[in-house]
UniProtKB/TrEMBL annotation:
One Pfam short name: PqiA
TM ranges: 12-32, 60-86, 98-123, 129-153
Record carries keyword NADP: no
UniProt keyword Transmembrane helix present: yes
Protein name: Paraquat-inducible protein A
């Protein structure tokens, strides 16, 4: 099978765009639906973070903000930068791009932590008469966004960085 630079980058961009599309409803729609004694409330990601701050849980709010907002956005930017930098020369050399690639790959393993928290809460709090927690559509969208960005990172072929470097040198 012959290596195709264009096909490799097309896969990266396709998965990245799919991840971005799934990330939008993950932030717009409710992540959790909580029912307590007949009263139901829904929280989006940012709404949940604000709620945590109002209750004085600053550390947890920061962790949720970091894991749910900052990390995914940083992953989108990093993968897009890597894909662009193999076509146009970048100030970041091969070593810097390789470190960025490895960081994105490492973070991918931990990106599903939000979805796991929602799943655990849903499983643990099911006292139908007093309280119940159920995942919202945002949980599915967030899981899809994470999976798509993981596929985008895995589709990126690190050999492209060296090919780009060789093109610049010649």
């Amino acid at each position: 099978m012959e290596f195709s630079e264009t096909a490799s980058l097309q896969k990266v961009w396709a998965w990245l765009v799919a991840g971005l599309i799934a990330y939008v409803p993950a932030n717009i729609y409710p992540m959790l639906r909580t029912s307590t004694l007949g009263q139901t409330s829904e929280n989006t990601l940012m709404g949940g973070i604000i709620e945590l701050v109002h209750h004085g849980s600053y550390g947890v709010a920061f962790i949720v903000f970091f894991a749910s907002i900052l990390i995914p956005i940083a992953k989108f930017i990093a993968i897009a930068f890597l894909a662009i930098s193999v076509r146009k020369p970048a100030n970041l050399g091969n070593h810097g791009r390789l470190v960025l690639y490895e960081v994105v790959e490492f973070i991918g393993r931990w990106s599903m932590i939000d979805v796991f928290v929602v799943a655990i809460l849903t499983a643990l709090v099911q006292l139908d008469f007093a309280a119940a927690i159920s995942p919202g559509i945002a949980a599915v969208s967030f899981a899809l966004s994470v999976a798509f960005t993981m596929l985008a990172a895995q589709s990126f072929d690190p050999r492209l960085m060296w090919l780009a470097e060789n093109r610049v040198e010649s």
